[in-house]
Amino acid sequence: MAKTTTIPKLQVFIIIWLGQIISLFGSGLTGFALGVWVYQQTASTTLLGLVSLFTALPGILLSPIAGAFVDRAERRWIMILSSCGGGLATFFLALLSLADKLNVWHIYIGMSVISVCSTLQYLAASAAITLLVPKRHLGRASGMVQIGEASARVFAPALAGLLVLNLHIQGVLLIDFASYVFAIVTLLFIQFPEVKNTIEDRAKKASLLEETIYGWTYILNHPGLLALLLFFALGNFVLGMGTVLVTPMLLAFTSPAVLGNVLSTGGSGMFIGSIVMSVWGGPKKRVYGMFCFGLLQGVCIILLGLRPSIPLIAVAAFGVFFSVPIITACSQAIWQSKVAPEIQGRVFAVRRMIAWSSFPLAYLLAGPLADYVFEPLLASDGLLANSVGRIVGVGHGRGIGLLFIVLGIITVIVTISGYLYKPLRTVEKEMPNLILTK
User: Fold this and answer.
1) In this structure, which of 6, 67, 180, 355 has its CB flanked by the most CB atoms within 10 Å?
2) Strands, E, within 297-373: which ranges?
3) Overall pTM surpassing 0.70 (yes/no)
4) Which CATH class is domain 1-191?
5) Higher pLDDT pick, 159 / 318
6) How far is CA 351 from CA 63, 65, 126, 231, 366, in A?
7) Interatomic CA distance for residues 272 and 278, integer angstroms
8) Architecture of domain 215-431
9) Cα–Cα dist 9/130, whole Å
10) Nearest CA among 179, 436, 188, 211 for reference residue 345
């Protein structure tokens, strides 16, 4: 085994970040390519949707247990072993494809394994960053981490489309496997700081079940963090609804090519927002950054549905996704600075499970709300055709536009309510900083 090297903490963070950004990009290639393969083989939207479900749900459900493991073990080795697990799952899918024996159910199993490994990876990395990055730079660090996610969203689909044509699905999977190997190699040559126990680690000698429950009780005992979590979960719910609704709304009056351009514009907003956050680091009072960009996001969501205008929708989509990394980074920095490092695995696991659970809920509700409630309201003879319809228009897709407006208004109301709720507004002031770096 390779010997670890003593490297300054910030350099260790840079090495971890580089390895993870390559791995995230590889996973983005695989996600797009597998989705294309499943749809080409089955022509079933339902089976395609199940790929997303198996990619997200296992990790969400196992988050609390994963968090307890992260706090019990050395986080560097958790990252190494989880990368090995994800890489092996990807490699087996590639072998099945090469042997022409790949089936849809193989993909479901493989993505479930990758989902659990990704959750362990995320929790271990988030907790490790707290020990490596000074408090004043946590916002920048979160912005840098999101550059990888934004890159996967913006560039991976286009590149994966070209690779599938030239290298086929097995070629894309092998590239992803290589990205896992790269991430593992970067981790083998570094060492993480030791976690020092504090009085906060009340569950240190507890059973695994008690440690799993501890993450829940910790958040419930801190109203500011609970409000922060609910604020973020509601934001994810709105974004999840928007992800489902934007495609049918645009295809009601434009072409798939224009849809792709609008989605790319939104993705570029996320990429630029991540770069801005990595350079800027966010405001001194990070919770105010969440409120300000939450309001901007709400206004942009309203604009998405206001009129069937491609320039307006493209600008609004850019604004929505530009706000995402800034809100996320500000929230992440607050959690990292307020939760003691030795319990971050458990606490962050519960936080991740609740925040991410809003996405499946949004996916389930978006279609019925659009098809059976809002679209009929703005049909040519709908109940709101002669009132609201005079502003937003009537016909196919305009009911979804109205739903976007409602979601934007909800976002604005939630943001203002969050500001008025004192435990959330003062969470940075009322809770002490518990990170070890200065």
Assistant:
1) 67
2) none
3) yes
4) mainly alpha
5) 318
6) 9, 13, 12, 12, 23
7) 10
8) Up-down Bundle (1.20)
9) 11
10) 211
